[in-house]
Design goal:
DNA-binding (chains A, B), NAD (chains A, B), homodimer, transcription (chains A, B), Arc Repressor Mutant, subunit A, DNA-binding, DNA binding (chains A, B), Rossmann fold, about 210 residues, alpha/beta
DNA sequence: TAGATTGTTAATCGATTAACAATC
DNA sequence: TAGATTGTTAATCGATTAACAATC
């Protein structure tokens, strides 16, 4: 049953569930129903139950889901119960902004290295990390066991950076550059491009 | 036929087509087929033809699509042929990063005002704009005819900012805060949350 | 017990893809 | 003309939602 292929849509909702569950937990809420979750997250309760049921039977009939237990389970599913080291290339404003989110990610995922190709930026401190030159990327990624790479360089350099990440053995890449990057099948890429986001938003203006 | 409901998936692909078409145009490519586009963008050619066909007959059988003409058409569809003013609340690193993308957006969408609730930040210059206090938000948005609002404040403040935007009559909101904000039906919200993006990426690690 | 809510099956809905006549 | 490629219909695939027996 673990081998069942889970759709990307399901995986994308899990972090959203998790975030709200954490909020409930901080408010000392013990239990939550798919009804409650659906209302708050604007999702269909049946969908939430089905999403969770792909991974196990986490709820109790007549009661709902234990908040603490469900948090634990979703964290396991998303592999957030282990430390995951992340490296970032592109020490601009965006790179800086992302680095500062470290605190939010609660020590599970952590940006442990920052690189940039521009000589002027080498050595600058970003969130307690010294910006390193690209020449140190592969060695550093091996040494720190970095598994995820974040790209925050201009579009023209994104593919090169992706290639370096792949060479270094990174397993997944989050690309903020407004360009589609090509990587081998075994590397997972997500695109987080706010320009396309803004442009599609414009469509909905009157 | 213009009244046909276009799915969100289609609208999200249009900016991606546009971006690549602009690239082709800069390389002086005259014509492109759905085949070419599909290969480069990793999409099914039939899907691309169908997406475009929702809005008109933009191609020529046996030839493909005229790059310049298709750019023009997609820009019209996305309303990028008109000036759209954007306001941003949250003058942190992320807000600063987004403001700097103005150049990229080529004068169509333009961030014309930046606000922050923190007194220390008022008056600071971000990309030639003085950060304004929240008390000036509604007046400024009216005066500058701002139609889109961007939220780059911490999660706890995002809903308040959204409420202010709605009061000011903004038509659409792009929310970067890791929380789901509620707005009236007539206001469109897109969520661009990189923490959930990173967390779902973790799922695909081995 | 009665009420609530899960897990899951079946029904529905919507999106993607294949196929091909039309035609440049 | 022959080859290429569109626009579009039909087929397929997948995701969402409704419904409900099981059960806390």
């Amino acid at each position: 049953m673990k081998s069942l292929k889970i759709s990307e849509a399901v995986v994308r909702r899990l972090p959203i569930y998790l975030r709200f569950l954490n909020e409930l937990n901080m408010r000392n809420v013990q239990t939550v129903s798919s009804q409650d979750l659906g209302q708050k997250l604007e999702l269909n309760p049946a969908q939430i139950r089905k999403d969770l049921a792909y991974f196990g039977e986490f709820g109790k009939k007549g009661i709902g889901y234990d908040v603490v237990y469900l948090i634990e389970k979703i964290r396991q599913i998303l592999k957030l119960d282990q430390h995951i080291n992340v490296a970032l290339v592109g020490a601009g404003n965006l790179g800086r902004a992302l680095s500062n989110y470290n605190a939010y990610l609660r020590d599970n995922m952590k940006i442990v290295a920052v690189f940039d190709a521009v000589p002027d930026k080498i050595g600058a401190r970003i969130n307690n990390l010294a910006v390193q030159p690209m020449s140190e990327l592969i060695e550093t990624i091996h040494r720190l066991k970095v598994r995820i790479g974040i790209i925050t360089v201009p579009a023209g350099e994104a593919q090169n950076v992706a290639d370096e990440f792949v060479k270094a053995g990174v397993e997944a890449i989050l690309n903020f550059a407004p360009v589609i990057i090509k990587v081998p099948n075994e590397v997972r890429v997500h695109h987080a491009d706010f320009t396309t986001e803004l442009q599609s938003l414009a469509y909905y203006l009157d």
